[in-house]
User: Fold these one by one.
Assistant:
Number 1:
Amino acid sequence: MASSKISTCLIFLQLIFLLFVFNSANAQLKVGFYKDTCPQAEAIVKKVMDQVMKVAPSLSGPLLRMHFHDCFVRGCDGSVLLNSSTGQAEKDSPPNLSLRGYQVIDRVKTALEKECPGVVSCADALAIVARDVTVATMGPFWEVETGRRDGRVSTFSEPLTNLPPFFANISQLISMFRSKGLTVKDLVVLSGGHTIGTSHCSSFTSRLYNSTGKDGTDPTLDSEYIEKLKSKCKVGDQTTLVEMDPGSVRTFDNSYYTLVAKRRGLFQSDAALLDNSETKAYVKLQSAATYRSTFFKDFGVSMINMGRVGVLTGNAGEIRKVCSKIN
C-alpha cells in the first residue's frame, strides 16, 4: 500500500516536472522580451518599415507571407532567410521562389545591429515586420511575442513537405495546420492574409485550362471570373502577376471572404474553405460582416498562435549578425 502511494507520488512529481520544463521553454517567448536589452527594437523596425512601405507598398503581401513560410518549416526560426552557396536552402525550394523582400529584412537587421549588436534575432525581426506591414495596409495591430532565436539549418526539401500547396484540398490543409499545433479556425483566419498581395498565373492556371469542368475549367470557380482570369493568364504563363483580392490588393480587409463565398477565391486552397462546415461558416460570417468585423481581432490571435510554432528559445540556436548566414 505504501509502495503504491510512493509510486503515485513519483508519477505526480514527474508530471509536474515535465509541465514545468514545457512551460518554462514557452515562457521565454513573451511581449516585451527586449525591454531591457534593446528597448527601441520595435520602434527601429517600424521606422525602417515606414520608409519601405512609402516606396514599395507591393512588398506588404510577400513580407507577410515570408513569416508564414518561415514558421511552417522548422518553426519560426528565420531559416527561410539563410543563403546556400549550392542552392540548397529553403529559399531555393520551389514553394519559396516567389518570395520577395529579403533585402528589407537585411535592412531592418542592419538597423537593429547598429543600435543593439547581437541582441535581436532575425526570426523576431521577421515576426515584427509581418505585423507592421499588416498595419501599414490598414490591417490590425497585435502585440508580437518575442524571444525567438535563429536556427542554423535550412534545407531545400522541407518546404516541399511542410508548406500547404495552393492546390491542397481541405483535408490536407487541416492536417498540415494541425501538425503545427494550429486549429481549423487558425487555418481559415490566416487564409485571410490573401487579402493583400499578388500571385503568378502558374499557381492557378490549372483551374482555367486543366481541370474537370467544361473546356478544362474548374467547376468550383465562378465562370465569369474564369473568363477574366483567362484574359490575363494564357497557357504556360510563368511571369504575369494577378491580384489575389482584386480591387483591394493593398488594403487589408475582409473582402477576401466575400470573394471566396462567391466562388472567386484564386487558389484551389481558397475554394477548399467551402468544403468544411467550420471553415465555410467562418467564410459566410465574414463575407456578410461589415468592414473589420471580428476578422481583425481573430487575425491577430492566429498570427500570435502561428508565431509560437517550433520556436527556439533560451540557449538553443543563435542570434545571427547577418540574417542570410549563420555566425
Number 2:
Amino acid sequence: MGKAYYLVKWKGWPESSNTWEPRKHLNCPLLIENFLKDKNEYLSRVREGKAMKVRSHVKTLKPAIADYIVKKAKQRIALQRWKEELNRKKNHKAMILVENTVDLEGPPLDFYYINEYKPAPGINVLNGITTGCECADCPAEKCCPKEAGFILAYNKHKKLKIQPGLPIYECNSYCRCGPDCLNRIVQKGTPYSLCIFRTNNGRGWGVKTLQKIKTNSFVMEYVGEVITSEEAERRGQLYDNQGNTYLFDLDYDSDEFTVDAARYGNVSHFVNHSCDPNLQVFNVFIDNLDLRLPRIALFSTRTIKAGEELTFDYQMKGSIDLTSDSAEGLSPSKKRIRTVCKCGAVCCRGYLN
C-alpha cells in the first residue's frame, strides 16, 4: 500500500510554497483530525446523508473534496480570529465563542462590535446626571428607584422581581454605594459565556448559552447605533428588502429614537426571534435619566439549559419593528414587507412583523 502524503500550506508563506509531506513530517494532530473530519463530512453531504463507506486510503482526492476541505480550513481560521477579536473588544468577563458546523459561512463582513450605544450626530445618550443616592447599603429610603418613583427591580439574590413594562433604575456613577451593590446588574455586562453559532434551519446565526441561566436573570444588553425614528424608517425599508430585522424602537416614553444593531452591536445582534422566547425586554436607566433613551436589557423568563438557544420576541413592547395590527393603519409608503418567521414554536404567528 502506498504512503499517504498531505499538501501543506505553511503558515506565513504564500500558497506557491506549498509542499507535499508524509504523515511523519507533520506534528499537527488537530489539523489532521480536522482534515479527516471535513473530508468525511463533505462525502456524507454529497450522498445526502445516506449511509456510505468512506475509504481511508485513496490515491488522490477529487477536486471538489479538496476544494471543500481548503475552504473549511480557511473558514475555521477566520472564525477563530473573529472569536479572538470579539473577546478583545468585549468589556465583560464571560467568554464569547463562535461555531459553524452547518455551512461555509464566515464572519459577517460589515459588523463592528461595540459595548454601548453609538449615538448618531446630535443625539446625546448621556444627559449629564450629577447626583446619586447616599445609601451605604442599598436599597434605603432614598435609593435611586424610589427617587424615580419606582420599586427596586431586584431581590436579594440579584434576580428580577418586577413585571414586564416597569422600568429598572440602577445606581449610577455618582452613587455612594460600591460595585457589589445589588442594584448594579445590567451595568456590569453579561455574566454568562455565550456562543454565536450557525443555525441549521435557515435562520442564519444564533446565540446559545454555555451555562445554565436561572429564571429572571440578566443575560445581555441590546446595543447599536441610536438614530432618529425618521432615519429608522428609511433604513427599515432597506432592511425589509434584505429580509433583515435589527431596528429596536425606544418607545418607553415616546418614539423619537431607535436602536439599529445592523452594523454596530454586541452579541445581541445575533439573537434570533421566537414567538415563544426565553428572554424578555426591560427598559433600564442608569447614567441617563432621559425617558426617551432607555438602555435595553434582556432577562430570562424561565430556566435556560446550557446549550439552549437564546431568543426574544421581536414584537415585544418597546421592541423591534411593528406588530401586524399596528401596520394596518399605516399609509402605503410606510407599510413594511412581511418577513416569514422560522422560529418553529407551537404558537408561531407566521411572521416576524
Number 3:
Amino acid sequence: MATTTSLAFSSSSLHNRYHKRTTFFNGSAASFNRIGVRRSLARSGVFMSVSVGKHTAVTVDDALFADYKPTNAFLFPGQGAQAVGMGKEAQSVPAAAELYKKANDILGFDLLEICTNGPKEKLDSTIISQPAIYVTSLAAVELLRARDGGQQIIDSVDVTCGLSLGEYTALAFAGAFSFEDGLKLVKLRGAAMQEAADAAKGAMVSIIGLDSDKVQQLCDAANQEVDEDNKVQIANYLCPGNYAVSGGVKGIEAVEAKAKSFKARMTVRLAVAGAFHTGFMEPAVSRLEAALAATQINTPRMPVISNVDAQPHADPEVIKKILAQQVTSPVQWETTVKTLLGKGLKKSYELGPGKVIAGIVKRLDKSAEMENIGA
C-alpha cells in the first residue's frame, strides 16, 4: 500500500488564491491524505490520477495557471546584471547572509568574496555570474522580508518571472524547487553554457533603436555574408528598440558593421561568453536534461512565466522540458511584460543586482509602478 504524504506551504507564503489548488504530489510513492481536497481537485480537472502498479500518481494540469490575473509581480534579473559590490548589503540580514554560506558549500568557492570584491573579469564569467545573480536575487527577497511591511509585500505577490537565468530564481521563489537544488542547477547550467561557448566561439550584441522586424532584416543581411557556423538570430526580445542578437563572432561583427545603415541608434556588445539562446548552446541541453531529470520539481505556488513561450506552466515535467529548451530558444521577455501589463498588473518589484528589468518595464509602460530591491 502506498504511503500517504502531503507537501504543503505555510499560510504566510502560499497565496490564498491558489491555496486549494497547490497541494501536490511530491514525487515519492504518495497520494493525497485529504480525500475531500482530492475529490474537489478531480472535479475541477486540475489533477488526473494515473495508476502505476499498486501506486496512484497524480499529474498536474499544465494549464492550471492559464487564466491568471496578476496584481503584484516579482521580476528577477539575468546574466549581465552582475556588478562588483553586490551582496554587501545582504550581510546585514542573517537570513540573506546564510544563503551565501550555503552557496559556498555547494559551489566549492567563496561566492561572497567574488561578489563583493571581484575582480570584475572573474565575476563576469558565466560560471560565476549565474550563481552570483541567483543567490543575490534571493538574498534581496530576504532583505525585503526583514523590512517593515516586507512580508506583506511578499504575500501579495501572485506572479513571478525572470530574464533567462532569472527564470530559475523565479521558480525557486515560487517553491518549484529548493534554494539548494536551484543553485545546483544554475551551477551546472553556467558550466554547460561556458563549455558550449568554448566549443564554438560566439557573441551577443544589443541593437538599440530598431523595431524587431528591422532587427530581423539586419540579421538576414548579415547572414548573407557569413558561413553557416557564423549565422546570427534575435536571441532576446527585450522591449521595443532593444533586441539582443546572438551568433557566430563573424556574424555579430557583420551586424555591428551594418547596423548604422539600418538606422540603428547604436550597438552594444554584451559581456557574455558566447551565443546564448541559439543553437550554439545545443551541447548544453543534454547535460541540463540529465540534471533536471534528477531534480525534484514541484508545481509552483503561483504562475511563473516561461521565457520560451511567455506562458505559465504547472506540470513539473513540462517545466523541466521548458528549462532545457530555454538555453537554445529566444527569450520572449517583451511578450511576457506586455501580457502582464495587459492583464492588469498593478506593481512590479525587481529583486537583485542592477535595474535592467525596471528600464524595460518603463519602456513598455512609462506609468508602470516599479520598485528595485537590491542586495
Number 4:
Amino acid sequence: MNEDPKVNVSGLPQDYLDASAVENISDAVSYRVPVVEAEPELVVNPWDIVLCTSGTLISCENAIVVLIIFHNPSLRAPMFLLIGSLALADLLAGLGLIVNFIFAYLLQSEATKLVTTGLIVASFSASVCSLLAITVDRYLSLYYALTYHSERTVTFTYVMLTMLWGTSICLGLLPVLGWNCLRDESTCSVVRPLTKNNTAILSISFLFMFALMLQLYIQICKIVMRHAHQIALQHHFLATSHYVTTRKGVSTLALILGTFAACWMPFTLYSLIADYTYPSIYTYATLLPATYNSIINPVIYAFRNQEIQKALCLICCGCTPAGVSQRARSPSDV
C-alpha cells in the first residue's frame, strides 16, 4: 500500500502511452548508435563477361600459332613471319581484353584504364595492319613470281613489320600521352577514354585499309584467273580445270574479305556516327563481332596452311598426318 498511484493526466489510453514510450526509447537508441550501411555489391556487366571470354579464346588460339612458328625454325619464310605477326597481335588483343576486365572490377583507376585501352588499340591496329601486309605479300608473290624468293623480299617483309608495329604502338600510346577524354567528357567517343577525333582517325584508317585490301584482292583474283586459263590451255581441259581453280580462288577471297568486313565494319561505322551519349549496349553489340575476327584469323591464315598443320601434328603427337600433302603451301596459294 506504500506504492504511489501513477496518475494519467493526459486523458489518453495507457496502452497508447506505453507504445509511445517504447518508440521514444527506440529513437533515442538509434540516434546514439551509428548505423552501419551495407557495402554495395559488385555488379558485373554481362557484356564484359562475354568480352573477357572472347579474349580468353583469342589468347589460347593465337598462342598456339605463335608457339608453332617460334618453335619451328623452318617456318621463317616471309609468309610465316606475317602470319606470326598477325597471331602475336591477336594474342595481345585477347590478353588486353582479359586485363581490361580485371582492372575494370578490381583495380579501378585512370592509369590502368589508359594502359589497357592503349594495349587494346595497339594490338587490334597491329592485327588489321598485319592482314593488310599479308594481302600485299600474296599480291607480290603472284605479280613477281620469278623474283619473289629473294633476299629483297625478306628485307621488304621486315620493313613492313617494323612500320606496322611502330605505327600501331604509336596509336596505342596516344591515350596514355594525354589524347584522352578523362578531363573533358564532352569529347568522349563510344569507347571511353578515347576521344571522338581519335576513334574517327582509327575508323577512317580502317576504311582506307579495307579499300586497299579489296583492290589488291581483285588484282590477285585476276592474276589467278589468268594463270588458270593459261595452264588449262596448255593441258587442253579448259572447261573443267579453269572453272574449278577460278571458283576456288574466288571463294577463298570472298571468305577472307567477307569475314573481315562483317566483323569490323559495324563497329567502324558506329564509331563514326555515335558518341558517348549513345547507349553503351550499342558499343558492346558492335565491338563484340570485331573481336571475333581475331578468333577466325588463325583458322583462315594459319591452320589451313599445310606446313603449320604438319608442325602442329608433330608437336601434339609426334607424327605427320597422311592427309597432308608433302608439297609445301606456297605464298601464292589463295
